[in-house]
Write a structure and sequence with these properties.
The chain is of the alpha/beta class and 399 residues long. 44% of the residues lie in helices and 16% in strands. The chain starts with a helix and ends with a helix. Residues 7-92 form the DUF7884 domain.
């Protein structure tokens, strides 16, 4: 009885849209004004102590176990919670300190490798089910609203390389090169000699195979190693979705390494998830099940490290809506193979990934997190760049 009273009070101010809730005793309550499009069913009671400490983890695990069912859009529901100023998702005072102390410690090289492989080495077959043919697992760039996901991912790669104003014959390093689309495109379309450093064996093997098939062994070099072990310098560096994985205590070293690996007046395009607000920077559900060891820095943190590393900012571009749309496309694709995923990996795993994709889309939609491209130079800002930003979008305007 007490738990129901507590949940009733919690849910009454949890969302900025009407929601219907059925409790474990079969009784139903409606919260908010209007006709609810979302129906939450609690099949079992929750652990209120865990709810007070780590609400997203308790709710996520209950959903994975089917202790909670959601009839309607998870993305819409989570967005509505973030949009409510006094929701349990927006008031992190009860668990922020614990999260920071537990999840933001330094990562040594072995731990970093284990963290990356725990996520990406689920197997290429899993990601191939719902990514596009480029096998790009990062924010796409929607230069046109009517682009397919694959077109938007290719546009993202070109947007990055165009921003660098890269010149033929130069050397490019991609830190965390994934399945290799960027380094292959840079070699084929920009005549660059490229180097990629994934930590995932699955991604490494996939990229090596693609490079061989395309006959690019003399222009595309893939090394299965930690980026901290690189001993060369490059004209350009790209890094897409990497700084979120290095940990709070390693961010300064990460940006210092970017500077170290650049030649004088070399440029880097750093693309990653960040925040335009102060917050915990971590989520216990994502830390435990999706990205162990992750930490999302805010813009001020990144800019501080960029300046401390002796780099200067050329350009900063938020792409929040682009990642929301990317995640929405992934969710549609994932739902098409959901039953197949249940069969191969089990229902809890399948529900976990569905929740993860939709909750992340909601977080971008609500502005809880952002994704930003930082274009930086190891030298005076704008060195050897056109005076106008127009060069960055010539390709967009011609398509």
């Amino acid at each position: 009885m007490l738990q129901k009273k507590v949940l009733n009070k919690l849910l009454a101010r949890a969302f900025n849209i009407p929601v219907k809730v059925t409790y474990w005793d079969g009784k139903t309550e409606a919260y908010g004004q209007g006709q609810p499009d979302i129906h939450i069913t609690f099949n079992k009671k929750l652990d209120l102590k865990r709810m007070a400490k780590v609400p997203t983890l308790e709710l996520a695990e209950a959903y994975m176990r089917r202790d909670i069912e959601i009839d309607g859009s998870i993305q819409e529901l989570v967005t509505a919670a973030y949009g409510q100023s006094d929701s349990f998702l927006t008031d992190q005072s009860g668990f922020t300190g614990a999260l920071l102390s537990k999840f933001t410690s330094s990562h040594d090289k072995e731990t970093s490798k284990e963290d990356i492989q725990s996520h990406y080495d689920i197997g290429n077959d899993f990601y191939q089910k719902w990514l596009d043919d480029t096998m790009t697992y990062s924010c796409a760039y929607w230069a046109r609203d009517d682009m397919t996901l694959e077109e938007a991912q290719i546009a993202k790669v070109h947007h990055i390389l165009d921003k660098l104003n890269s010149q033929p014959g130069k050397k490019l390093l991609d830190i965390g090169s994934g399945w290799g689309t960027l380094i292959i495109t840079a070699a084929q379309d920009y005549d660059l000699e490229t180097y990629g450093v994934p930590l995932s064996e699955e991604q490494y093997n996939y990229t090596i195979q693609r490079v061989k098939e395309l006959g690019l062994e003399d222009k595309v070099h893939v090394m299965l190693k930690d980026y901290r072990d690189i001993e060369q310098q490059f004209d350009y560096i790209t890094s897409v979705g990497t700084f979120e994985h290095v940990g709070k205590d390693n961010l300064a070293e990460y940006f210092a390494d970017v500077a170290k690996y650049l030649v004088p007046n070399g440029r880097a395009l750093i693309h990653g998830i960040t925040g335009q607000h102060y917050g915990a920077g971590v989520d216990p559900f994502i830390e435990k099940y999706i990205f162990p060891g992750g930490y999302i820095p805010n813009v001020i943190e990144n800019m501080t490290h960029i300046m401390d590393a002796g780099l200067q900012l050329d350009d900063l571009e938020p792409l929040r809506r682009h990642y929301q749309k990317t995640l929405e496309h992934w969710t549609v694709n994932y739902h098409k193979v959901y039953d197949e995923t249940v069969k191969e990996y089990g229902e809890q795993f399948a529900r976990m990934w569905d929740l993860y994709l939709q909750a992340c889309a909601a977080s971008f939609e609500a502005g809880n997190i952002d994704i930003i491209q930082f274009l930086v130079t190891k030298g005076p800002a704008g060195h050897d760049l056109p005076m106008s930003r127009a060069y960055m979008t010539v390709r967009d305007n011609n398509n």
